[in-house]
Amino acid sequence: MLSIKNLDAFYGKLHVLWDVSLELGNECVGIFGPNGAGKTTLINCIVGLVKPQGGTVEFDNKTLLNQETFQIIRSGIAVVPQERELFPLMTAAENLEAGSAYIPAAHAKRKERLEFIFSIFPVLKLKSSLPAAVLSGGEQRMLTIARALMAYPKLLILDEPSTGLQPSLTTDLFLRLKQIRQSEGISILIAEQNVRQCLKAIDRGYVIENGKIVLQATAANLADNDYIRKSYLGL
Amino acid sequence: MQIVSKLRERRYQAILGAIIMAVIILAVKPEVLLEGIQRSSLYAVIALPMALILGIVGIINLAHGDFMMLGSYMAYWFAVKSGLDPLLAMIPAMLAFFLIGILTFYALIKPVLGSQELNQLLLTFGLGLVLEEAANLSFTSAPLKLSVPYVSASLTIGDLTFGTFEFVYVLAAMLVFYIISLFLKKTRIGRAARAVGQNPKGAKLVGIDVNKTYLIIFSLSIAIIGTIGVLFAMRHSVFPVMGAPYTMKSFCLIAMAGIGNITGILWYSALLGVSESIITAIPGAAGWADLVFFALIVGAILIRSYQQRVK
Ligand SMILES: Nc1ncnc2c1ncn2[C@@H]1O[C@H](COP(=O)(O)OP(=O)(O)O)[C@@H](O)[C@H]1O
Ligand SMILES: [Mg+2]
């Protein structure tokens, strides 16, 4: 469904992604790597916020490289950005509404979706009439995830979703993602530094360091890999 | 008890203060209050579209008043060429300025959207100068005056006499405010515009066509200000640099209200308009009216810095 081949990306003269290739079918895939490895840049290349210098990005066999971000989003990709990117003066409810308003198919089914979202994140229902800016960091993170779910995406991309969440919520979040993936059959791509927790949710994972993919394996193999155990799991 | 507790809130204190002041002025010199309200409405209706552009497109349009000036010349041109009543000329003017807005957006605004603020300021400032010079070359700098008989109508109640035509500004301000608020709250494009104003990247990520939103908001605002220019020409003289002071005042009203605060513009316009009217009414002090504006800005900025320091 998502196919990235030989991607090269730059910021000015800084070469950030080196010949990155990644395939994602109907599955949950992780991208692991330290700060500055290029995870966010890779995601931004997928959704058109960064234009790569070389390589291809295809979604459902159509290239995304000549499309604008809003078109890519409307074609069925939803993003939970690292910096949240909420609408601070709008209420939580209005932020959720915005998640589906510009995607016709999702807009028609927004009522059911809202109920579902309030059932997994009850705190959002409680605070639905408050401006997003006054929610706590963790609540804003949940709101961002919920806003992305409002779009009924075929592919959900999450950029370090566990940042700012307390540990019990993080465990819960990855569990939920796994459930949503199973019940709706959507594909998920997660960039994370919290490898230990994330491994429970994913089928396969890639490790990216200094802009290069250095390893790819199934979740079980990653958990057993000596390098991963030493560098990412602290074992 | 409830009233007492409400009075602790600053908002209600301000409203109460405004009401007390209005009652005093109304008792002593009612025509001053009426004139002040008319003047305030004019300020508000001019500032609102500029606020829309700044709040959503993120551009300080220093050519704002010059688009109004173009609208005024268009009213004059319509009146001379076709004898069209300016009130009716507002309709074709609105369409024409919507198109002018689209052209300006593609030719000048879109290329500088991601650029530094200084570049954007210089660009719109330069555009304003070009428009003024173009008007100067086409119509000379001599003030033009439309002769529309009904604009000088006045009403006398008891020993109170006031102009009635100026109430169209009050009507226009209310209408523009109401339509803009409704548009931003209720329509799909309006909601998208609010999202874009608060977070353009977030807006892209929920599937909003941000550039189209900029185009619509910019063109709409230019359509409004051009149409206001037509209305303005009915009561005021028309000359190339007539718009510049209104750009200044609008910008300062927006700064005082805070970017994105449409309702605040009404309040600050009222403060500015009524204060100016009071000063103008004091014998021998009329010349000082322009200073009110500077005093208000300095005051507002001082108060805001003080509040920030206290926090
Ligand atoms: N907007 C930008 N301009 C210039 N350099 C950037 C920008 N964003 C990221 N970088 C650089 O690109 C590299 C990869 O960053 P990023 O993709 O954010 O990594 P990660 O998400 O894995 O932490 C880093 O060296 C970072 O400093
Ligand atoms: Mg990142």
List the topology elements.
The complex is a heterodimer of chains A (about 240) and B (about 300).
Chain A: E1 2-11, E2 14-24, E3 28-32, H1 39-46, E4 54-59, E5 62-63, H2 69-74, E6 77-80, H3 92-101, H4 104-108, H5 110-120, H6 122-126, H7 137-149, E7 155-159, H8 167-184, E8 187-192, H9 195-198, E9 204-209, E10 212-218, H10 219-224, H11 226-231
Helix pairs in contact in A: 3-7
Chain B: H1 2-7, H2 10-28, H3 30-57, H4 64-82, H5 86-112, H6 117-139, E1 154-157, E2 160-163, H7 167-186, H8 188-198, H9 200-205, H10 210-233, H11 244-257, H12 262-281, H13 289-310
Antiparallel strand pairs in B: 1-2
Helix pairs in contact in B: 2-3, 3-7, 3-10, 3-11, 3-12, 4-5, 4-6, 4-10, 5-10, 7-8, 8-10, 11-12, 11-13, 12-13
Explained architecture:
The complex is a heterodimer of chains A (235) and B (311). Chain A is built from 11 helices and 10 strands. With 235 residues, chain A is an alpha/beta fold. Chain A folds into 2 domains: 158 residues, Rossmann fold, CATH 3.40.50; 68 residues, no CATH class. Chain A has a 6-stranded mixed beta sheet with strand order 6-7-8-3-9-10, sandwiched between helices. In chain A, strands 2-1-4-5 form a 4-stranded antiparallel beta sheet, covered by helices on one side. In chain A, α3 runs parallel beside α7. The longest helix of chain A has 18 residues. Chain A starts with a strand and ends with a helix. The relative contact order of chain A is 0.18. Chain B is mostly helical and 311 residues long. Chain B has a two-stranded antiparallel ribbon. The longest helix of chain B has 28 residues. In chain B, 41% of the residues are buried. The mean pLDDT of chain B is 90. At the A-B interface, α2 and α3 of A face α8 and α9 of B. The complex binds adenosine-5'-diphosphate and magnesium ion. The site of adenosine-5'-diphosphate (ADP) has 11 residues of chain A, from β2 and α1. Magnesium ion binds next to α1 of chain A.
